[in-house]
Every structure is written in structure tokens, then in C-alpha cells.
Protein 1
Amino acid sequence: MIAEYGPTSIPPTNATGRLRKVRVAIQGCSHGELDRIYATLLTREGPPIDLLICCGDFQAIRNVADLETISVPAKYRDIGTFWRYYSGQTRAPIPTIFIGGNHEASAHMQELFYGGWVAPNIYYLGAAGVVRFGGLRIGGISGIYKSNDYRKGHFERPPYDRRSLKSVYHVRSAEVYRMKCLRARAGPKNGSPSVRKPIDIMLSHDWPRGIEQHGNTEALLRKKSFFRQEVEDNNLGSPPNEELMNAIKPTWWFSAHLHVKFEATVNHRRVEAVDAAPSASIGLVPSQVAGEAGSARSSKEMLEKRVARVEERQFTNFVGLESLPCPTSDSLPDLTEQMTRFLSLDKCLPRRQHLHILNVLVEEECDDDRESNESDGKNAVNQLEYDLEWLAIVKKTHKLTQANPSFVDVPNEPVTVSEEEIEDVRSRFHKRHLDTSLENASSNTNFLAIPQNFRVTAPPHNVPGSNIPPLGGRLVGNPQTDELLGVIGLEHVITVPFSGTSDSVPPPQPAPPRQQVSFAARSSNPDENEIDLDEEADETNMDSLEGAREDANEIDLDEDVTNEVHTDGFDQEVKKQRTGSLDEEQSQPEVMAVPCSSSQKKETASTKL
């Protein structure tokens, strides 16, 4: 069975309301395996999952034309089953949010640059975004880091050439800058102190640079020995993500990309103390302060580093996992700002540690933006909402949104949005709510709830014409983006107005009656296809790591085959197992595919991603 963390969050020190539990499932690289992920979560024992979060390589492929916009070798392209969710044939059984990775249907993602529904109940956070769910504040940044594109504007437009097909998913400095602005704090609100919550959960596809130094580095290198040189050179991970983690100090940070489970805990008080020292290099974690870049670490420094990591884990585990709400002085620092728990997960394959469940205690908020409606019950609380501060930041920094390859002049210091600027965004959404309520008496009572305004913008798979890119492959736009920009008062820059009509694409098809699938055999032996993700591998028993070792027959679909050249030995190491085609699963009931049984786990040489 899937093991669970929790409850691990620490409510505000001035908490006066009731506490409730939110169950969040975290998935590493999805690689189009939505059916398998949902099936695993729905057949687990225990209370239902409130929210599923996917950390990239989601692959929201609507049709054959979208396959031309995904950066993988042609022979590994597979239509998958997302198009069923997109077309309405199947509905996601769990509210799902995701960020983009480096294997996405980029034209589809670019339509929703600011975020939006890719299918009913499945929400994309955009190039960067922040939303609220059940009292949690969740942020994410899509793509991976490449230094040569980092400071450029978003110049890519479909149809993509060979270069832009890769650069379109590279993280840009403007989005990282906006996320850094979230560390600002607000002043009084309605005569009483109002402190904005820090980010509870932060998502990225690639890791923050140096994060491996805050966990069991040696265990990681036993699983992924070809990381050693990057670890020694302090090049494993994304420098912008490292800066961002130190700036906003989220409670949790989840990643994927490297196809391995890895846990770490960053004690920000230690980091800040070392950064303040004269010998410390700006932005580096304590274990990375070793003089000139690339210089060898002495054995004494390595020993001190290991001791510090052990002490940090002991201290952090006590505070983060065992502490309960208790009266504290306002002079004491907020524990959520002192440390960040990091977890990276594997890709969706049998015997891989790709799913994790987090139980989070949150305080039930009394929010003026959410009108009372007891009949809505839990669903009224567990719904996606816009984050006002984030939208105010996006509006204030709109000049940084550029659609050309020139360098973007990003300020050195984060901007602070005022209460007046946040109130302006609030009033705009309230006005839209009032206008909508006049037209629709059954509209949502929470005017910050993200509207269920999903719309098909390209023909789904198996519909005539779905293999032909609309508008000759040019960017189509999305009415969700039009609506959001219209409400907050911004113009299209990277995106374009939706150019389709109600007659140009078919409406979503109603979902067929849900068919019951028997999981009796699976339930009788819940450990057959699932992994206890909290179970620590025995470092002295190498056999316990066999499931995480690299297979010589695996193929690395994350490798940048056009821009990066590795030695033959390295290529052999980084080959990763193919995720397997879902073609076989398409003959199964519409609701979802059942994870392979032990007799079906062997992958064939003809399967695709």
C-alpha cells in the first residue's frame, strides 16, 4: 500500500479556527499515464484523495497534430489517453493540477500561458502560477533550466522549428522573478493585522541546485552514479530554483525529472547564517561554500558537511513531523519559514516510487471572499481558487512579458504589491461574479473560484481533421486566457486571442456511464504493484536498491539529443525504461487502465512513450 506523510503542517501561530485535513497525492513524471495513476489512487485503502499534483511531463496530447509539438524522438511519440479526458469521454475522478516539464504538447500549453483547464477537473498552472485549494497555497513553475535561454523573452511560436521545439519549455527569468515577489508581506487589512501565507507547496520539474547536499547524497549516487560529477561541480539542478527556494521558503517543494525518489530538508536559518558570513558565496547552501568554483573539498570539509546534514535532519524531523499546534510568542519565528521539505519522485512505472501522499492540517479560514453556503459542503472548500497576490504581481510586472529573443531587463529586487493593487484585482473578480450571477442564478458563491470554463480548442483524437494542425499550425489561443486577461485588464503578448468559433471544433462529448472494474486480485495483495514510499532503503544491503537501479535496456527520453553530447559510457548509464504504450490499455473500460499485474510488467521492445 502507499504510505502517507502527516499530519506535517504547522498551522498559523494565531490560529483560532478549526483544523481540517487535506490529502494531497504527489506524482513524479506522469509521461501520459493518467489512467494508471488514477487507478492506483482509487484502489488504495484509506480515505479518498482530495487533490492530485503532477510534477511535469504530463503530456496533455489532444490529437495526432499535438505530437508534432512534443520534444521526443518520433519513434517514441504515442497518442496516449489524455485525449479521452479532453474530449469528455472520461472525467478525471480526482481534482488534478500539474506543471509542465520538458516533454509536453507545447502548443497546447502555450495557449494557457497563465494557466487554465486542459480538461474538466485537470488544471495547468501555466508557465508559472499560484492557486489556492482547501486552504493551501500552491505555486509552480514549468519547464527546465537552460542558461542560454534563461534571460530571453518567450519568442517561440508554433509551428516550432528544431531549436524552438526545445527552447519553448526552458524556464525564463521573468517567471522566476514573479515567484520571488511572493515573499512580500502585507500590512493591515480591515483594521486587523493580515499576514499573507508563504507558499505551502511549490512545484518544479527540475531540482533546485544543491538540494542533494541536504539529503543522503551517497544513497542518491548509489542509485544514479552518473550524477557524481555534477554533484562535485555543484551543477546538479537549477540555479534559479535554488534562488527561489531560498527566497520564498515554501513548506514543501516537489520535483521530478531525474527519475529517482530523493528526500531532503533545507534549514533556512543555517543557509542564511552561512550566506551572511564573509567567505560565503551568495546563494549557495552551507555545504557548497568551498572557495573558488570547482575547487576540491577537503576531507575535513566533507566530514563537517556530513555531520551538519545529520544534525539538520534530526532537528528538522523533530520540528516538522512531531510538533503540534501550541501557544507561541509572536516574537518567535514562523516555523514554516525556517525549513523546506523537498521530495523528488520517479516516473510512473511498476516498482518505481512515483506516488506519495501528504496529509496536511490546515485551518478553516473565515474568508469574506467566500460566501456562506452550507449546502456546498466539502466541495465548496476543496475547489481551486485564484490567488489575488499572484495576479496582482502578474499585472504589476506585465512589462516583463516579452515575445522576442532579446534579454529581459529583470529588476534586482522583488517588487511589492500594495493592498490597493490587490484590492483592485479583488474588485475586478467581484464585478465579474456579480455580472455572472445576474445571468446564471446557479453560479458559484465564491467569486475567487476558478470558473469551470474549459472549452475544446482543437479537434480531439479520432475526430475527422484532428491530424491536421489548426490554422496551419499557428497558435490558436484559448478563451480561458482571453477571459482571465480581460478581467485583470491585460493585453495579449505571448498568447493570442482565441481564433476559433463554436463551429470550428466539436463540443466535449458526454462521459459514458462509469463501468465497474474489478480490483479484487490487486486488493488481496496491495503491495504487489505499490511501494511503501516512506520505507527507508537499507543502505548496507545493496539488494534493497535493485528496484531503483538503472536498467541497461532503458532509454533516456529526457536527454537533449541535439544539444548535449555524452560519452558512450554515460549514454549507457542514462538509458531509462520506456513507459510503455497505452495502446493495449485502450481496449479496457473507458474509466481507467488497471496497473499491470506481475505477469504483465515486462516491457516489450516495441513499446513507445
Note: The chain has one domain: 4-266+342-533.
Protein 2
Amino acid sequence: MDEKRSKRLKALSTNGRMRQDGLFQLDATREVPPLPGGSAEPFFPRPLSWEGDEKRKAGNPPVAHQVYDGADETAPIPQAGLEETFRDSEERYRVVAENATDGIAIVTDSQSFVFVNKKCAQIFGFTNGDELLGLPMGGIIHPDDRDRVLETVRKSQRGEHVPPRCEFKGLRKDGGLIQAEASEARTTYRGEPATIVYFRDITERKRADEERRRLSLIAEQAPEMIVVTDNSGVVQYVNAAFLKNSGRKWEDVVGAHVLDCAAGVGNGSFYEALWARLQRERKWTGRITLKRQDGGFNEFDVHVSPMRNSLGDLLNQVVTCRDVTAEVILGQQLRQSHKMEAIGTLAGGIAHDFNNILAAIIGNAELALDDVPEGSGVHHNLEQIFQASQRAKDLVKQILAFSRRDNQEAVLVEAGPLVAETMKLLRSSIPATIDIRHRVEPGRDKIMADAARLQQILMNLCSNAAHAMREKGGVIEVVVREHQVNEDASAPLPDLPAGSYLMIAVSDTGHGMTANLMERIFDPFFTTKKPGEGTGMGLAVVHGIVKSLNGAVTVESQPGKGSVFTVYLPIVARETERTVQEATLPPPGGRERILFVDDEAPIAEMNCAILQRLGYDVTALSSSTEAFEVFASRPGAFDLVITDQTMPDLTGAELAKRIKSIRRETPVILVTGFSETMDAERARKIGIHQLLMKPIIKQELAEAIRSAMESRGKAR
């Protein structure tokens, strides 16, 4: 058989089969191909001789009786040649199938295996394909998926459309489970309709997919911000934490350069230098500042690392950011607390000595005022000394209160003069480009408050207003007036009961705020200031103080139109005001016998003179041990003991205990400039009638004495 004829026979063998009668039956579903090698010459130069037109018309496969080789004479096809060619072709296909990387099986329409390659057997845990021959295909499918998969095969057999791939849980020979994928194609096998099924073990792929899904969920739910960029810095992925913390939207970030997401303090040179360093080193750890969409700033600890493939090629840069804004602010607060503690320690250390000095000034001024006629120049000068000393006394109290070393009680405060005084203090700390104005309208302005805390409200609000105008300047205006709140009050004052309130409005002409900012403006640690410019506690403190005074604070603002903070504090009822005013009557006197003890001899002598002018019989001593000896020798000779707390040998508290041990009913008034170990509650527990803070004015001392005498029931 020549080479040309052999090629034709091989081509023919791929398009039909050898029948038992020696004739070759063509597959009617195939088209006759051209000559091997791509020749345009038809495979058959002359038509095949068909086994009767009747069979062809009846739908039976055509049968080749002979094939012409291009000559006029016919050349019958030798049966032996066709069988050899067919066997060679079948062997080649079997070798290909057996060595395929996918599992290949042929199942009949009854869904039994008639061919299984080696890979398919391995997928399902068998040694070779022969173990599966004749077994039903459903045996390798888990019961959960069996009906679904077999129905897909049946649909294919019926010629219905089926998905290109079908995933299912497979059963291995040992009972183990795998994740498998199957696809199918219709064919004929030994003259019978059949289905070729291609199997793949996708267990590892599914496990990898699940791992990727798990990692994706971890990234999405992580509290840290995660950003993935390509090698050029273009953002390819950000997680939910980034969107939440930055206030940006996905579409605004993904596709943008990472530097566009960072807006630091000052110019962008820091971030440009950082990016240049990353291009060289690919790793970086540090802290950066990012600007939020609402204008605020957040601090982040950042770690940048490269993502590489198995060959070491750089694929991406991964940036993880942890928001440490709260920690930074807490650190600032801690440092501030330590600073204030140091100030408090200093203030406490000097308070006792300074108050002793003030006590001498105030006491002697009061004595001198009694000795000169009212209206004289000397009387006026002494009043100025007395008032200045009172301001110095209040200043010490404010320092102690500011350092949290003094508990301030609410007293009757006239807000108008206090506002005027506070504005003077603020003028020196606010830039000259900002004009400060204040107006106190006619009406009641007395409230129950602590003057220092009211000043703190004003200073925080004005400081906040000044910050809003620090670049372009502007006007701060403070208005004080009486305001009536009715039962049907509108929304800005929903929590205030009806009544009269002192309204303090602080307005500025700064940049204003958005609605989103106003919702958070009183939150602790929230700030739009850059790091180092503020802690975010100023307005939170204002809110806390106002609430503690049973008031309310509101804010109105629009971007570009400034802001107005309005504080409402209850005005003192007229009955309460009269009660407080009654306390300003001339100091009451008496005829009781008083033992006065202070280690500062001038103060002891001065108070002795003051009390004697009020009618009392006074014994003044500057030694606590001597005072105890005098009292112990004549306990019935004294109706009251007034003693300083901080003294050598015996403190005032120790002296009081010894006196009480001798004569329990003797009242004791304890006086201190400042003491870490003594407060009103501790004094009460050891039997002290009242604790007074130096410097003491005559009115305060006289009232304390009468209170002690009345409690004893021995007033004369």
C-alpha cells in the first residue's frame, strides 16, 4: 500500500468503523475531511459507492464498498488494512486518554462506566480504571449531590442544555470526601450512544478559595485599616475600616494614588520623601497623620511591607494602619495631668505660706478700716488693699481648683462683672487681629455657681472661637442677658424646665462648621485641630460644667458664616437671693471664751484683736503643745477652740483629738491655708465642727463661731 493510499485509509478510519461483513461504515454525523496535509483535493476524487440509496434514505449509515485512488479503475479497500489502521488509531487515543491530566470516563446511557482512565481512578482512590468498569456512576457521588449530578447527565442524554461544569462532593474508595468538578460531551462508544465525562479534583482549589474568602473576611472585619497598592502606588484595595476612619468612599480611593489619600501637617514633602524611600527599601514603620473628609486629623501607626510571589517578584505593597488618635490624646491628657499635678504640688506647697501672708494683710486691713472714718482717703485706700487681697485669695483658690486640689462649692455669683473681668484676662492671650467685645444687657444675672468654673466656660468657648479665626482674624462677641424658657420651648432647649435663665452667647466670625461636625463637637477627644494644637476636651469640659449646673449649651453654625455657642444657666430665685444678701449683715459678736492657736504669732495676735472687738474673751497662743497644756490645766475655762492645722509638734487635728479626749463637748474650728491630709469630711469624722480655709475674713470667722456656739447650746 503506497503512502498516499495509507494516509487516505487512516483518515477514513477516523470517520467510521469496520463492520463484521468487511465493509466500512461512515459516521453520518461527520463531514468528510480534505486530504491529510491540507491538500485541496477532495478525500474521495469520485463518490463512494453507497450500499443502496434505500438505506441512506431510511437514515441508516452509508457503507463504503470501494474507494477510488484517482485512476479510472476501482481499488477495493482491503479489510485487513482498515482493521490495522483502526487499531493504531484507537491505541493512540487510548494512550492519550490514559495519560491525560484530567480524569476521563465513558458512561453508557444507563450511567455505568465502560471506560475509566488512570487519572480518574486515582481521583476517586482506585488503583486502576478496571475497578470501576460496570459500576454505576452514582457510586462515586455523595448522596447529597447524587440526584442533582445524575439528572444533569440525563438532561445531556436528552439533548437538553446543561451547565458547562458541575461541582459536587465525590466519594473515594476509602470513604473519604473530595470536591470534584465534572463536564461532559456526547459521543458513541462501540456503536452505542454514550457520554464522555471529564473529572477534576478541585479539593485544593476549593480549600484555597475558602482560605482566600476567610482572609478577605478577616481583612474586611479587621479594626486596622488595610490598603493594597500596585508597584506604582495606585490603590487597588481598601478595607471597610479604612473607609470608616477616613470618611472616604470606595470609588474615590480605589484607582487613586496613595499619596492623594494622605494630607499631613504642613506641606506634602514628608509623604513624598516617604514614598521615595519605599521605592528603594519597600518597607517602613512609623506614625503619620491623615486628614479626614470632615476636616479633622487622625494619628496612625503604619506598617508598609511588600507582597511577593513564589519567585520573589514584587506584586503589591500592603499598608496596615492602626488608629492611635485616642491613645495619642490620652497620652497628651496624661502629660497634661502630670503637668497639672506638678502645678498642684507647687500650688499646694506655697498655698499655706501665701495664704498666711494674705491672712495678715486682710486681717490688718479690716482692723484698720474700723479705726478710720468712712469716706476718708485712708479708708478708701484700705478698701482697695482689702479688695486686692480678696482677689489674691480667689486667685489661689482658682489655682488649687484648676489643679484639682480644692473642692469648689456653688455660691451666689454676679455674672456681669465676672464676664467683664474674664474678657480682660483673655485679651492678653488672644491675637490682636481678633477683636473681643462683650455686652451685659439689663436684667438679673445672679446664678449659683463657682466663679472659677464659670470663667472656665467663658475661656474655653472664647479660645475655641479664636482658633476658628486664627488665620484671618475676626470678632468674638459675648452677650449676657436674662432669658425666659416657657413650657412650650422649641427644640434648641428641650431639656430645660420653664423658668428664668442667664444666657451667655459667644459668637465668632470664623470658618463655621458643617452639620456633621456639630453632631460631634461636644464629644470627648474629638477635635479638628492639628496634633499639638488641642486635645479635643475643651468643649466637652464646657458641656460637663454646664450640665452640672443644671443648664444647657447649644451651637449654631454654617460653613463660612461663623458659630454661636449659647449657654443657659438657671437664675437664682429672688427668695434665695434675699437669703444670701442677709448673710452680708454686720458680723455677729459674742461673750464666749475662745482659745486661738496659730504657729504664726502675728496672725494669732491679729485674730485675737479681731475677736476681742467682736466681744469675745480671747487667749491667743503660737504653740500647739502650750495650747494643749493650758487647756488641760483649765478645760472649763474655754467655750471654743480655734486652731491652725499645719503646726510643728502637734497638728491642729491632733490637738483637736486631745482636747476632745479631755472635754468632748468643746467645739473646735480648724483653720488651714492648704492641707493634703485634711478636708471637710475628714474633719467631721474626728469631731471638728467646721473647717475654714485661710485667709479668713472677719464676717466668715464670726459666722463660724456663732454656728459652733449654737450647736453646743451655750450661746450667751
Note: The two ends are 153 Å apart (CA to CA).
